[in-house]
Every structure is written in C-alpha cells, then in structure tokens.
Amino acid sequence: MSPRWDPNPNIRRGRTVIYALHAHLVFTPKYRRGPFSDEILTRCEEIMRSVCADFETELVEFNGEQDHVHLLVHYPPKVAISKLVGSLKGVSARRLRQEFPHHIRRYLWGAHFWSPSYFAASCGGAPLSILKEYIENQRQPG
C-alpha cells in the first residue's frame, strides 16, 4: 500500500478535526524601543520556534526589525492564541534578558520586555467576501 498523499500541506489532521489555521502576530518591545540586533533577532526566532513546538504549533515564518517582530504561525484548534502569545512573549523576554543583559538594559528598563499589547490576524484561505458568498449559496431555492 502506498503512503497517503495530501495535496495541501496546509491542511492538518487531528483525531477528530481537519484544520488550516494560521495567524499573523506582531509584537513590539515596551516603549517601542529598538533592542533587536541581527543576533538577538536570530536568537528570538530560535526561542519562539521552541515555544511553538511545545504548543504543537508551527512557526512558519519569522522576521523583524529593530523595534518589532512578525510571526506567521500554523496552529491547531486546541491552542488559544492568547495562551500561545503569553508563552511566546514570556519565555522570549526571560531568555533574551538572561542571554543579552547588557544590550537589553540599554534599551529597556524595569521588568518589562514586550509591550502588553500585540497584533493578531487570522490569515490564509479565501477572502471573506468569497466565503460569505459561498455560504449564502449553499442552499439553493428549489
């Protein structure tokens, strides 16, 4: 018997669910100060990949600039985005402060690394207008 081929790698399967959930996340450091060097961004990505793996979530893409980071995550329905975000920000803040204490202290003071707010958007799939039309047309008058 040949292995099963799934034509869309973005569609994942669980025991009782088939899903394709993606979120675009943006985090900024406290005061929008710019503590990120290339080295710190690289380490931040490694830390965030590890946290995502703990949540059975895939960090599909990561990038950033001096004053913010972008993440594209593929997550299962059992994961609450707010819990994932809390762990991503908490673990990365703690480890980056431990590993780069002098550099981080120049930009950020006090106990906070990340701003308490964040941006999250669902993404992927068809545009909302197409989905709305599809659902409206499910039951044709007959």
From TrEMBL:
It comes from the Bacteria. This is IS200/IS605 family transposase. It comes from Streptomyces achmelvichensis. The gene is tnpA.
